[in-house]
Specification:
By secondary structure, this protein is of the alpha/beta class. The protein has 18 helices and twelve strands. Bound molecules: guanosine-5'-diphosphate.
């Protein structure tokens, strides 16, 4: 990775393949000079920034025409990279675009590395590191929620909070360092209570950011949703309905979905990674047992589970086993659970009622009736379920209840609205840095409380400043920059 901005880089900025328009971007001190040479139009010698000029793109080596196109120039610092920038809009032909790049290289430009344009924006101080990462996230966003999250970060919402915390720590650090550097008669010793309250204000910010991190991850990456239930209740059919395509094999023979199947769907602007699981049933079949292991693995990593029951049949031992498994994994408490009463087009088994409220009660009663001899299960099936877990009757055959199910899934994915608006943190890297900062701040408070020397407090505070600076980029290493920018595409 090149950390200098001294040379001029060139890359195709549009995606590979054919298209209506293709853009070649040049950035650096010689961008204008090289860009103008690639253009036959005489008036580009008097080219002004931020204006489009039309003309013939040529290879300056022999004057051969390469394409017709538009050229626009931006002057530093008023450009994406903060350098002088030229963009040539040509036809979206990979061959033509490659020839334009080759001509620029022959004129002294260097081929840009992946993400190098955005790296320059960072090095030139146009954006900070969290904003640079947001560019990659926005480009990669595959749902409205992910795009919203990335845009907020690009606008600097996360950076602003992190800087607030970092500034508070720096304000606590300054008087301590002054008191270490100068004798007591020149600088009065810092007031410990004032230090503690500055540290506390930084702690509040890191705690708030960490509280929204789970929601942020879900917005950025999507929610992992497992569809579980005993064989033949309609899990694969439900998955297909949610995906609106035929993907899992649906057959009337119990236990045919032997493997887990994962597909992504956008529902209500959120990405859902739907995992159809093999039902968990006691079995001797080694292949089914592998499927069951995969189910357990999928369940242990899921954010949301749909427990599918067949409303037209009595609850079975297998239903209870799965319910217990879900309860043990924290679904319905720490993790979200939705009970789906499928096959609602068929006559209901008497234990299940028809409308929402009776369904809710009856599913509890129904489960409980089967479980009276086994107390741990009855508590799952009793009040807890009745209170907090949505119970939705669906029919994959008629489509009844599917919109309600989708709404319940989106509600579960959004968490509560308060945390969604605070969901500024989405990357594991940021969470790690915030945890580091928060631990350092707690250590500083303890050192203060224990009346230990202030230079020990200063050490903790410097750790916190460093950790917070990892997010916005004040504390960076070349390795970190390399890791972040290598994720970008060429030309960005
Ligand atoms: P899985 O084993 O839980 O994945 O269940 P499948 O999706 O393979 O469905 C098992 C059987 O139930 C198939 O014959 C489906 O057509 C049928 N089925 C699924 N959903 C419904 C439903 O809502 N109503 C009715 N009547 N049949 C359904």
């Amino acid at each position: 990775m090149t950390l200098s901005t001294d040379d001029t880089i060139v890359a195709i900025a549009t995606p590979p393949g054919q298209g209506g328009v293709g853009i070649v971007r040049l950035s650096g001190p010689h961008a204008w000079e090289i860009g103008r040479r690639l253009f036959a139009r005489r008036s580009t010698s008097a080219m002004r920034p931020q204006r489009l000029y039309y003309g013939t793109v040529i290879d300056p080596a022999d004057g051969a025409a390469l394409d017709d196109g538009l050229i626009v120039g931006m002057r530093a610092p008023h450009s994406y990279t903060g350098d002088d920038v030229i963009e040539i809009n040509a036809h979206g032909s990979p061959l033509v675009l490659r020839r334009i790049v080759a001509a620029a290289l022959a004129q002294g430009a260097r081929a840009a590395e992946p993400g190098e344009m955005t790296l320059r924006a960072f090095l030139n101080g146009r954006i900070d590191l969290a904003q640079a990462e947001a560019v990659a996230d926005l480009i990669a966003a595959n749902s409205d929620a992910a795009a919203r999250q990335a845009l907020g970060q690009l606008e600097g919402k996360l950076s602003e909070r992190v800087r607030t915390a970092r500034d508070a720590v720096l304000r606590a650090l300054a008087p301590i360092e002054a008191s270490i550097d100068f004798p007591e008669d020149e600088v009065p010793p810092p007031d410990r209570a004032a230090l503690s309250s500055l540290i506390a204000s930084a702690e509040t910010v890191t705690a708030e950011l960490l509280a929204g991190a789970e929601q942020g991850r879900i917005s950025r990456e999507g929610i992992r949703c497992v569809i579980t239930g005993r064989p033949n209740v309609g899990k694969s059919s439900l998955l297909n309905s949610l995906l609106r395509v035929e993907r899992a094999i649906v057959t009337p023979i119990a236990g045919t979905t032997r493997d887990t199947i994962e597909e992504s769907a956008i529902i209500g602007g959120m990405a859902f990674h739907l995992i159809d699981t093999a039902g968990i049933t006691a079995t001797e079949d080694p292949i089914e047992r592998i499927g069951i292991e995969r189910t357990r693995h999928a369940l242990s990593h899921a954010d949301l589970a749909l427990l599918v029951l067949d409303r037209s049949a009595p609850l079975t031992e297998a239903d209870h086993q799965i319910a217990q498994e879900l309860r043990d994994l924290g679904f319905s408490t720490a993790r979200k659970l939705i009970v789906v009463l499928n096959k609602s087009d068929l006559a209901p088994f008497p234990a299940f009622g028809r409308d929402g409220e009776t369904l809710r009660r009856d599913v509890s009663v129904g489960l409980r009736a089967h479980l009276t001899e086994r107390p741990p299960l009855s508590s799952f099936a009793g009040e807890e379920l009745a209170q907090s877990v949505p119970v939705i009757a669906t029919s994959v055959v008629t489509g009844e209840g599917l919109p309600e199910l989708e709404t319940a899934m989106v509600t579960a994915a959004l968490g509560n609205a308060a945390t969604e608006s605070a969901a500024l943190v989405a990357r594991a890297r940021h969470v790690e840095a915030l945890r580091g900062a928060s631990a350092a701040l707690a250590a500083a408070q303890k050192t203060l409380r224990d009346h230990l020397p202030l230079d020990l407090v200063a050490e903790d505070l410097r750790d916190a400043v460093y950790a917070l600076g990892l997010i916005t980029g004040e504390s960076v290493t070349d390795d970190l920059l390399g890791a972040i920018f290598s994720e970008f595409c060429i030309g960005k």
